[in-house]
Amino acid sequence: MPTTESLITSFLERLGAQDAEGIQALFADDIDWVVPGNSELPWTGTRSRGSDVAEYFRTLWAGLEPGKSIVAPGKVLISGDDGVVFAHFTHTAAPTGRVFETPVALHLGAADGKIVSLHLYEDTLAVSKAFFE
User: Fold this and answer.
1) E strands within 50-97?
2) How many helices (H) and strands (E) does the chain have?
3) Quick one: which of 64, 94, 101, 118 has the most CB atoms within 10 Å?
4) pLDDT, tens digit, for every residue of 41-76?
């Protein structure tokens, strides 16, 4: 059975490859997913079904200019079934062409060999300004 560490490693590898279906395969059927932010951005909000994960990433990536993102991962901390990934994102909003940067903490929870929770912490104001101001 995959460990929390191996699930997070696979998640990060598939994220880097923009493999939405591969990421979804790591998630359980029932999940606790929270991505805060401006409700006008279609990828923000909560989700409760693992079957929604691939569509989340496809929607997010469609909002960003291809080839203009930098994801700089930092430390990964793991304690039992919980893992936190610290990173720094630089993206360009496709609708406006504005570049935005945000430090990120991504809390992932695992159970029974699957990811069961994802909570993202980022500068939601910077993201919103890039898309709407």
Assistant:
1) 70-79, 82-92
2) 4, 6
3) 118
4) 999 999 999 999 999 999 999 999 999 999 998 999
